[in-house]
Amino acid sequence: MTKQARNGPYICGIDAALDVVSGKWKGLILWELDEHDVRRFAELRRGLPGVSEKMLTQHLREMEQDGLVHREVYAEVPPRVEYSLTEHGRSLNAALEPLGQWGIGRIAREQPELVEHRDADLLPRPS
C-alpha cells in the first residue's frame, strides 16, 4: 500500500497533528486501543457505537499508513486480525490527553449531566 500524501505544507505543528487525527473516529480508535491494548475489528466496532464498517476500515488503514496502528494478521482459518497502537500511536494518545481533560472540563461546565462518573475525578476542583 502506498502512503497517501498529506495536505502539507503545514503552518505549524498543530496543523500537522490535526491532519493525522482528522476524522470523527480516529481519536476514539486511539482511545479504544489505548484502553484495551489489542482489539479485533469486531471488538473495535462494538466499542465505537455508530461507526460504520466502511469508516472503521478506512480510518484503520489511514492510521496504519501513518504509523499509529499496527495490524497483525494471523494465518488461521478463519483468519484473525488484531489491531494495537504503535509507540508513535501511544505518544499521540498521550499528547491528546490534555485535550481530553479540557473537553471533560468544558462538558462539566456546560452540561454536567453528560460527564461520566469515571471522569469526575479528572475535573478541576472549584477554588
Structural class: mainly alpha
Give, in spatial order, the strands making up the sheet with the most strands.
1-3-2
Low-pLDDT runs of 5+ residues are none
Number of strands: 3
Query: C-alpha Rg, in Å?
Result: 17 Å
Biggest beta sheet attributes: 3 strands, antiparallel
Describe this structure in words.
The protein has 127 residues and is mainly alpha-helical. It has helices at 13-21, 26-36, 41-47, 53-65, 87-110, and strands spanning 38-40, 69-74, 80-85. A three-stranded antiparallel sheet has the order 1-3-2. Helix 2 (26-36) crosses helix 5. It is globular, with a radius of gyration of 17 Å. The model has no long low-confidence stretch (mean pLDDT 85).
Key words describing this protein structure:
mainly alpha, globular, 50% helix, 127 residues, 5 helices
Please render the helix and strand layout as text.
Elements lengths: L12 H9 L4 H11 L1 E3 H7 L5 H13 L3 E6 L5 E6 L1 H24 L17
Antiparallel strand pairs: 1-3, 2-3
